[in-house]
Amino acid sequence: xxxxxxxxxxxxxxxxxxxxxxxxxxxxxxxxxxxxxxxxxxxxxxxxxxxxxxxxxxxxxxxxxxxxxxxxxxxxxxxxxxxxxxxxxxxxxxxxxxxxxxxxxxxxxxxxxxxxxxxxxxxxxxxxxxxxxxxxxxxxxxxxxxxxxxxxxxxxxxxxxxxxxxxxxxxxxxxxxxxxxxxxxxxxxxxxxxxxxxxxxxxxxxxxxxxxxxxxxxxxxxxxxxxxxxxxxxxxxxxxxxxxxxxxxxxxxxxxxxxxxxxxxxxxxxxxxxxxxxxxxxxxxxxxxxxxxxxxxxxxxxxxxxxxx
Length: 309
Description:
mainly beta; Arc Repressor Mutant, subunit A; Jelly Rolls; 2 domains; 13-stranded antiparallel sheet; two-stranded parallel sheet; 19 strands; globular
């Protein structure tokens, strides 16, 4: 399945091109098989000139392509270029000084865990190990995981610390697709999911649901629809002013200084359910080929160029 990813910079032209019922119908027809303009005009019950003009607008934004195909003479045949369009609504911050480190890690690369059933690790094509058996979390193939779930416990990751010597971290960000973990799925199933960075509790997000019943954009077809399908993309940011969740102040107790990033050989990321959590509803963690977002675990560290103790 070929996906076109849009952001704030390129979404407008595509949106204008598909904001037309005839052009949407053309895409629907071409999703079944290639057609020439005459065939499209006949199915749409439109004049050839009107159909050709709409085809041209879709070609201009590269949603469809045209090639010369031999037949009765040579004819132009149109085919669709993408199976799916996704719009990224998170605005990426520009950093002209480039004092930013970006690292992405697969969800199967955890270095420590403590999990309780229901639990499991799912790859792109099948389960890894045995469902509801915590021993599966130690299988070598766990590194191929695209979905990790557990009802209680935690997983810990260690990102390389690439902070330049002599620099000081000014902002830390962590982004992941998450949701609660219920039997099968349950839309009303809150869970208090906590993030720790370098052993310091950063904050807790209460997931409202274990989302299912509607297939995630990236969730493989073999995965049953009544199981967990997708999560929510959550962004934790820690600055000198405290910890923020999706841009909203979460707490002021943990600041970037508390993380001591410049003193650590790695950056520890731990996700889990606290023992005293009010809502102990488990955790689902999604990889780049599962759920709704084409990314694994993402860390950003912004830093000053030089500082002195």
